């Protein structure tokens, strides 16, 4: 089973990487870019075939390692 | 208009970050994680309201800045 995890900064948390990308885009002549937020996109190939068990495992992986839950949100998508 | 861009390493390109995450997960006791790939997830708030123009602009942003097209692929999703 494949799991796709999006880890993004919580609203209100300053995103220096996003700001840097925004400025760089502007200096390249891209106007009209109001805001840029950058996060992580993690793809996991799991041996697990049971959907509920996979969801539970990935949830735990996010809590323990993949996301800093103080400042980040995460979203899990499973695909067979 | 909101654009969501996934930037991921091309198949066959070594992913040291993914490998490091995989080893860390294993040391935390998560078995059955066959492969881990990490990429970037970038959200852009655009002033542009025309879909085709937004697609073209973001395509150009990817080519020029957001992705290293030698080793990375990118995928663009637009949302009103």
Biggest interface pair, counts: A-B, 33 and 33 residues
Strand content of chain A: 35-45%
What's the rounded overall pLDDT mean of chain A? 97
The level-1 CATH class of chain A: Alpha Beta
Task: Assign the CATH architecture of chain A.
Answer: 2-Layer Sandwich
Q: How is the CATH topology of chain A named? A: Mth169, Chain: A
CATH homologous superfamily label of chain A: Phosphoribosylformylglycinamidine synthase subunit PurS
Which secondary-structure class do the elements of chain A indicate? alpha+beta
Specify the number of helices of chain A.
2
Order of helices and strands of chain A: EHEHE
Main sheet summary of chain A: 3 strands, antiparallel
Oligomer: homodimer
Q: CA-to-CA gap between the ends of chain A? A: 5 Å
**Beta strands of chain A, count:** 3
Q: Looking across the biggest beta sheet of chain A, what order are the strands in? A: 2-1-3
Description:
2 copies of one chain form a homodimer. With 80 residues, the first copy, chain A, is α+β, with helices and mostly antiparallel strands. The first copy, chain A, has a single domain, classed as 2-Layer Sandwich (Mth169, Chain: A), CATH 3.30.1280.10. Chain A is built from 2 helices and 3 strands, in the order βαβαβ. A 3-stranded antiparallel β-sheet of chain A has the order 2-1-3. Chain A is elongated. The mean pLDDT of chain A is 97. Chains A and B meet through strand 1, helix 1, strand 2 and helix 2 of A and strand 1, helix 1, strand 2 and helix 2 of B. Strand 2 (33-46) of chain A pairs antiparallel with strand 2 (33-46) of chain B.
């Amino acid at each position: 089973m494949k799991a796709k995890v999006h880890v993004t900064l919580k609203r209100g948390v300053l995103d220096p990487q996003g700001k840097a990308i925004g400025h760089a885009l502007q200096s390249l002549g891209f106007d009209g870019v109001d805001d840029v937020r950058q996060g992580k996109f993690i793809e996991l190939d799991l041996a697990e075939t049971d959907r509920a068990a996979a969801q539970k495992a990935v949830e735990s992986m996010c809590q323990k390692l993949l996301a800093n839950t103080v400042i980040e949100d995460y979203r899990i998508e499973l695909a067979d």
